[in-house]
Specification:
106 residues; mainly alpha; 2 strands
């Protein structure tokens, strides 16, 4: 019984901050010492034996279907429209125009 109380105080001392905390324990801790009940032993049932089912059946696939493509249609275009170009518009001026250092008169 004394050993159980000593173990209890050691556990409580660690919980309250080590050996220094023992001096500061509340008075009610000493009263709980005789009411501590030993923890029951935990027993486990034997581990069940796992029985494996037969190997997975082999999966067979039908042959892959042949993909047939229709011939690509020929794309025909209408003739390109004729672009009619107009003659460039000539702007005439009677004022001399300077180009590359020369005055050009039109």
């Amino acid at each position: 019984m004394i050993a159980k109380i000593a173990i209890l105080f050691a556990v409580v001392a660690v919980a309250y901050g080590g050996v220094v905390g023992v001096a500061n324990l509340p008075a009610s801790t000493a009263l709980l010492a005789d009411r501590v009940i030993a923890q029951p032993a935990i027993t486990y049932a034997a581990q069940p034996i796992v029985q494996h089912v037969a190997a997975a059946p082999a999966i067979t696939y039908a042959s892959q279907p042949v993909v047939q493509y229709a011939a690509q249609p020929a794309i025909t275009y209408a003739a390109a429209p004729t672009v009619i170009q107009h003659a460039a518009k000539v702007v005439q001026t009677y004022e001399p125009v300077e180009q590359h250092g020369y005055k050009i008169v039109y």
